[in-house]
Amino acid sequence: MQLQRFSFTIEAMSGRITIGILAHVDAGKTTCIEAMLYESGTIRKKGRVDHQDSFLDYDSLERNHGITIYDKEAHFTWKNSDCYVIDTPGHVDFSAEMERSLAVLDAAIVVISAPEGIQPHTETILHALQESHIPILIFFNKMDLPHPEKQKLLAALQKELPGAVDLSSEDAREQLAACSDEMLEAFSEGTEINEEMIRNGVSAGFVSPVCYGSALKQEGISELLDTMDLYLRAPVYPDSFGARVYRISRDKDGHRLVHMKITGGTLKVRDRLKSDEKADQIRIMNGQESVQVKEASAGMVVTVMGPESAEAGTGYGFEPDQREGKMISSISYAIEAPSGTDLNKLFSVCRSMQKDFPELQFVMEGDTIRVPVSGRLQQEVLAHLIAERSGIAVTFGEGRIRYLETIRSDADGAGHFEPLRHYAEVHLHLSPLKRGSGIILESLVSTDEVPAVFQNAILSALASADLSGVLTCSALTDVKISLTAAKGSMKHTEGGDFREASLRALRQALMKADNLLLEPFVSFLLRVPDASLSRALFDLEQRHAVTKTEQLKEGISQVSGKGPLRLLRNYEEEVRSYTHGAGRFSYEASGYEESSDQQTIIQAIGYDAERDTEHPAGSIFCMHGAGVYVPWNEADQHMHLQLKQKSDSEGIHHETMRISEEELNLIMQNESGRNRKPEKNRPQRIEEKARKPKPTVRKPKCIIIDGYNMLFGWDSMKELAHENLMIAREKLIDELYSWQGYTGQKMILVFDGYRQKDSIGSSYDKGTMKVVYTRADETADAWIEREVYEHAAEYDYIVATSDGLIQNSIFAMGAMRMSARQLEEEVISVKKMFLEK
């Protein structure tokens, strides 16, 4: 083996390691994995993608298209290493699927087609791995085909990955010396650059060993595996339990499989994960085959059956939740369904798919469902999934660019929400962040000034809302939102009041701010005959692109650069036309940047924030016994908390009214009743890594009613409930069914099943109202709490109860509360109105 050029005095480290195999499409990635499995003795016969019999691409869509669509797992051992391999999609349409796997990787092997060289998607992959601090190995594949010299391949790679080193080359020591001070010192002194130094460099990301071969012909595979075994360091895991979910899939019987990596401790069958969810079954996947195990220890990649609320990014044990990646399409498409389709039903199916595929951020705009999709292939896969789950055949309309909005400078805003029997006031400070930061939430006030429960309610409301800007109503990003003051009322504050005040404060601050429109940019690669170069450069200049030109080979020029997606998305067709098919144009997303055509885009969209009643910037004050709307530019003088701005060096200060412990207790009794267990104050800072906010959509309302609480809380029901509970229950159902028919809101009526021994729980639909009986060991408030938690993204909830069983978590999630008395008054009022008619 040529690697023996160095003297390896330290034995390679053993242990479990999770390796991702990543590549641009058609680089031979899946063939490479087949070769690794074959070389290690895991499989006896190699499959081929073109023969539709590969070990990992077993899905029907994958075999039909000859590409990887979904992440897959395999497992093998090689010398000292116990390897869990994740095969990721190479097609750009499925970049989000690839990105999700990064969260569980210890290292990555990037496969590059030697004849094709570095592609735009290769650059995207390398940048993502470097940003995630994942050690990288490189395998130049298809070396059996005509290709540039090794030196040219390596030089091109080093432009994107400076630490790329060919350890088999004559000048390997010189290459390594340029990677770290430790190796430079060893080289200068003429001493040995040993294995441990190289391993340190690989772990730190300074060194990326490069191998060459042909996976199809099984050439260079053992060298690749040896390099992996020698230089990749297995992590040391803690004894405490931790796990991170990176994917959700379903088996052939439709069972939900949660793919996770155990990052600490041990997970056993029947262990509790979160709330009432347990690990019912644990499997180790190897292609489409699996083996059930009783427990999984740290470092293992497994699939678990049982957790129904898990999503990609969910953390268990000490692992925090991580939501939303960066590789979400910048173009959204309208879903077109056959005439007569129940769009609400279709939207419900689509939103349920979002738990499995977080990048599919479905929104309902009027009577249109929209979703960001990366390309035609992903559209085909999505249509297939929708048909499987709903039986509805859908197509996709024309794509629309997804813009983002941010601010250029700091701004302050205040929101007041005080219709009759409600009260909340919130003050916020906004400050701009660097590109790609997403939204960061924090509190600048102490719990002595504003109680923790109020702060949590405000921050949770902002965290769960789809925040939009005031230029085009596009999603807001790269903004730090700081809570600077807040006030509630002893008698009138309801759960949703702080949500209303918070969002109004944000909108008012944005109306005052210097706003920016961001648009998606792409990195592109254009290859054209020299005769077409001047035309190409002129076109790209007109499209506001920044370019760099080089001579690729005789007669062919290559232009690389960056420009707005809006102007480049259809340029490929023009290139084919003016080069008569000889030119090639490809691009990759490179993030969002300030638009140079901001006013033109804003005018074309035609959004008017002043007229947007769904996202009001003004506040509501109680005047003369009624709620009065005050426009945003007049609201400051009516605020109950005075905003005092000091010099920039002193920052911004708000006078915040103190609330006594007695008043807080009364408010909490009004909101949530007595807590069964005291809770510690939650952290005052909520930070979301590089979160790209989702498009804003008005969510439908849903009222959940604690049935027995109404029976014993309504004056009209108390007596009958004490005499005959069953008759009273049926009467309540009829009363609420009639009222629901008038309001048209989605309604769920919940009765405690624990009152009935051995109840397994049940539900039925009465028209459009759902009646639920919980199981024997579950109270109505526990059922309601879980329902709101799992579906908060789909509905604005109103919870009708007065018995103190609804916990603070519902209040903090922004669910509005309605007392038994208020609901009874509403029902009686509607009933009286109809009787008068």
Number of structurally distinct domains: 6
In the predicted model, the low-confidence regions spanning at least 5 consecutive residues are 1-13, 646-696
Q: Estimate the strand proportion.
A: 25-35%
Radius of gyration: 30 Å
Q: Structural class, judged by helices and strands?
A: alpha/beta
Mean pLDDT: 81
Largest beta sheet: strand ordering: 2-3-1-4-5-7-6
Helical amount: 25-40%
How large is the count of helical segments? 25
Q: What is the molecular shape?
A: globular
Mind describing the biggest β-sheet?
7 strands, mixed
Number of strands: 42
| First and last CA, distance | 94 Å
Classify the fold: give the CATH topology of the largest domain.
Rossmann fold
- The CATH H-level homologous superfamily of the largest domain: P-loop containing nucleotide triphosphate hydrolases
CATH hierarchy class name of the largest domain: Alpha Beta
Q: Give the name of the CATH architecture of the largest domain.
A: 3-Layer(aba) Sandwich
GO molecular function: GTP binding; GTPase activity
Keywords: GTP-binding, Nucleotide-binding, Protein biosynthesis
Organism: Stecheria intestinalis
InterPro entries: EF-G-like_DII (IPR053905), EFG_III/V (IPR035647), EFG_V-like (IPR000640), P-loop_NTPase (IPR027417), Ribosomal_Su5_D2-typ_SF (IPR020568), Ribsml_uS5_D2-typ_fold_subgr (IPR014721), Small_GTP-bd (IPR005225), T_Tr_GTP-bd_dom (IPR000795)
Keywords:
disordered N terminus; Elongation Factor Tu (Ef-tu), domain 3; seven-stranded mixed β-sheet; EFG_V-like; Rossmann fold; six-stranded antiparallel β-sheet; P-loop_NTPase; single chain; EF-G-like_DII; Alpha-Beta Plaits; GTP-binding protein; 837 residues; alpha/beta; GTPase activity
